[in-house]
Write a structure and sequence with these properties.
The complex is a heterodimer of chains A (223) and B (217). In chain A, α2 crosses α5 and α8 packs antiparallel against α9. Chain A contains nine helices and no strands. Chain A is mainly α. Chain A has one domain: MetI-like (MetI-like fold). The relative contact order of chain A is 0.16. With 217 residues, chain B is mainly alpha-helical. Chain B has a single domain, classed as MetI-like fold. Helices cover 82% and strands 0% of the residues of chain B. Chain B is built from nine helices and no strands. In chain B, 46% of the residues are buried. The model of chain B has no long low-confidence stretch (mean pLDDT 91). Classes of the chains: A mainly alpha (223), B mainly alpha (217). Chains A and B meet through α3, α4, α7, α8 and α9 of A and α4, α7 and α9 of B.
């Protein structure tokens, strides 16, 4: 049985290549934002956990504000409002910046939660045995907290990959943007293209969630 | 300094946007709660095909972007000849997407109820559906309230995708105001403040609720 004409034409090699190019941009933005937001999120989480004077308070307010705003607004703001006060970036870096700031706020909360889940008695024991606060954080608290952070962090990364699609409003040439262009070519392209794009997002995110599950089972919690 | 005349001069537009944002979020919350509960019950049903459908629903919609779900309605369904405007398509998309998350929360709630209760209900002659509806779900729902609050918060933020499909929400009317005032920075600071007006109280309320329910257990 042949596919309906819309499907056949929509999945022409040139169109699939066009979607693949979009997927590459999506993955590029995602990888950069994941790396930056993880580092930034860890720093913010640690500063807040350690209650560094002033900085912890200020970052706390910042995290609270960013977490309660729509990411779409942040992306839009970075692209169209920041130039008014002299901050200009390319579309690509606008997307990376907005995603990084938003996801870092989310990850900092995961990090803080992970750190706080480690029993306070351990810090006291470590300090009593002569470790400095930083040593105690690095050798005792962080390794345990990191292991507990894996599942929520990976699901945050999956969110991040999905969230890159919001960059359509600043016309970043990522997967969703390319899909939108293709659906405009012909009326019967809409459904086949959206399905193909769904499969692409699903494949990437589902694989990531499988990796997360592997990581979870491979590192059993030591009592 | 921010130009306050942007708000005072266009409060009617901001208000319209705010109302649509709240309306879309409330409609989607109710819809996704009903759909999510149904999916959760399917996922735990004693029939393999039901479990399959439930699992497929959750895995599919949790792994694709919300915007894509909205596009499936806004571009996909309309291309089949069903007329949907941006608000309708956006709200439907939000409902389906959020239902996948709520289904997981409800499933956890159902699983927190001891199995013995279902077995006792079945043994006393109730069907699976009756046992769920009359015995398990009413108890499970108290466990589900904190994650539901969280999802409502997410819904308000996520409803901003309506702005991408001309869905008359706060983002959309922010764009309208900006095209009149041409002050992008100030206008969107106000849009952000209006979102915070909705989300910050909710976020505090949901945390307080979580603490309270956590203590009583």
């Amino acid at each position: 049985m042949d596919l309906p004409l819309g499907f056949q034409d929509a999945y022409a090699p040139a169109n699939l290549r066009f979607l693949a190019e979009g997927l590459l941009v999506t993955l590029g933005v995602s990888v950069l934002a994941i790396a930056f937001s993880f580092v930034l999120g860890c720093l913010v989480g640690i500063v807040r956990y350690a209650r560094v004077p002033v900085a912890a308070r200020l970052l706390g307010i910042g995290v609270e504000l960013i977490r309660n705003l729509p990411l779409l607004l942040l992306i839009f703001f970075t692209r169209f409002a920041l130039p008014e006060i002299g901050i200009r970036m390319s579309v690509f870096w606008c997307a990376v910046t907005a995603l990084t700031v938003f996801e870092a706020a989310m990850i900092s909360e995961i990090v803080r939660g992970g750190l706080r889940s480690v029993d306070k008695g351990q810090i006291e024991a470590a300090r009593a045995s002569g470790l400095t606060y930083t040593q105690c954080l690095r050798h005792i608290i962080l390794p345990q907290a990191l292991r507990r952070m894996v599942p929520p962090t990976v699901s945050q990364f999956i969110s991040l990959i999905k969230d890159t699609s919001l960059a359509v409003i600043i016309s970043l040439p990522e997967l969703m943007h390319h899909a939108k262009i293709l659906t405009g070519v012909r009326y019967d392209f809409v459904i086949p293209v959206l399905l193909a794009v769904a499969v692409m997002y699903f494949a990437v995110n589902y694989l990531l969630s499988l990796v997360a599950k592997k990581l979870e089972t491979r590192e059993p919690e030591r009592a | 300094m921010l130009d306050l005349s942007i708000v005072t001069g266009h409060w009617d537009l901001f208000l319209q946007g705010l109302m649509h944002t709240v309306l879309a979020s409330v409609l989607a919350l109710v819809g996704s709660f009903l759909l999510g509960t149904l999916v959760a019950v399917l996922r735990l049903a004693p029939i393999l095909a039901c479990r399959w459908v439930g699992t497929a629903f959750v895995e599919f919609f949790r792994n694709i972007p919300l915007l894509l779900v909205v596009y499936l309605f806004y571009l996909g369904v309309t291309s089949l000849g069903v007329p949907l405007d941006g608000f309708q398509a956006g709200t439907l998309g939000l409902t389906i997407y959020t239902a996948a998350y709520i289904a997981e929360a409800v499933r956890a709630g159902i699983q927190s109820i001891p199995r013995g209760q279902t077995e006792a209900a079945r043994a006393s002659g109730l069907t699976y559906g009756q046992a769920m509806r009359l015995v398990v779900l009413p108890q499970a729902l108290t466990v589900v309230i904190p994650p539901l609050c969280n999802q409502f918060l997410n819904l308000i933020k996520n409803s901003s995708v309506l702005g991408v499909v001309a869905g008359l929400d706060l983002m959309y009317f922010g764009d309208k105001v900006e095209s009149i005032t041409l002050a992008t920075f100030d206008t969107y600071i106000f849009v952000g403040l209006l979102y915070l007006l909705l989300t910050l109280p909710l976020s505090y309320a949901s945390r307080a609720l979580e603490r309270r329910l956590g203590q009583s257990r």
